[in-house]
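Hi support team,

I submitted a single chain yesterday and got back a structure, but I'm not sure I'm reading the token output correctly. Could someone confirm the output below corresponds to the sequence I sent? I've pasted both exactly as they appear in my results page.

Thanks,
R.
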Amino acid sequence: GATPRRNRTDWPGAILLLLTLIVASLSLNHFHDGPETFADGWRWHLPMHGVTAALFLMFVLIEQRVPEPLIRFSQFRNIRFSTAMVANGVLHMTMMMTIFSMPFLMQRGLGMSAVTTAGLVATMQAVTVAMTLIGGWLYDRTRSPWLCVVGLSCVAGGLTILGLDPSGMDIVTLFILSVVMGFGSGIFLTTNNTRIMSALSPEYRGFASGMLETTRQYGHTLGVAVATIGLSGVIGGAVTSEMNPAVLEGFALSAAVTAAITWVGVALAAYPIWSRSARISDSSDVIDPSPLGLAVARRTERG
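Hi R., thanks for writing in. Yes, this is the structure output for that exact sequence:
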């Protein structure tokens, strides 16, 4: 028989995407002389942002012309897939912002011990891990898209409270907020990941998985960037080992900005529920045509 045609690797697209992400990350760092302010750093940041935009535009143009593109932009027309991908990046941004900046709030802002800080962060992570299992169990039995909305709303609500006035918070309040945010993160992660992987047809599962990881990693990068900008922008210098009331203001700014972005993520998670076309595609997940996939589909139909 005829030899099957091998797919060509999109090396130009891969290299351009790598360069775009590297330059975008560098553009958020302070590789310039002088204080970490816009007045002293705009000569670095603005050109780097421009280079990032130019590289991304080149990447998009190349992807539309190669026979086997690294990213099939046509798949982003799927509302359920696109909104879930952005919401995934938002959730991971909140996770990294919280983990990165919470120790500064508790130790440098509120004067709590390192042991207390570690216990609180570990508790939030433990709740998140536990709720990922429960979230998957709930979604298998309900297929409710509202689980994503409720989960991300818990995270957004916790960040909103943290962004109001963290100066008067005690360990009990922080513990409750951490549990609520861990609960929401775990519920959202499993549910949203499942919806992303089932939004596209089986031949694009690798692409969906790759985009899932891309948004996760870049969400982490943005989370650290938001926390760093908030803290250093208010303090005006490096965060020392001593208590500094300005840390409270810097953390509040970072939390408020992250909360605002997270509420946008909540709206994106809810949009497919309100959109008629997305509801139709969400009424039944894409069925895997393999024997195992068909067996699972028949079992689901029987309840």
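A quick pointer for reading it: The first helix runs from residue 11 to 27. Let us know if anything else looks off.

Best,
Support desk
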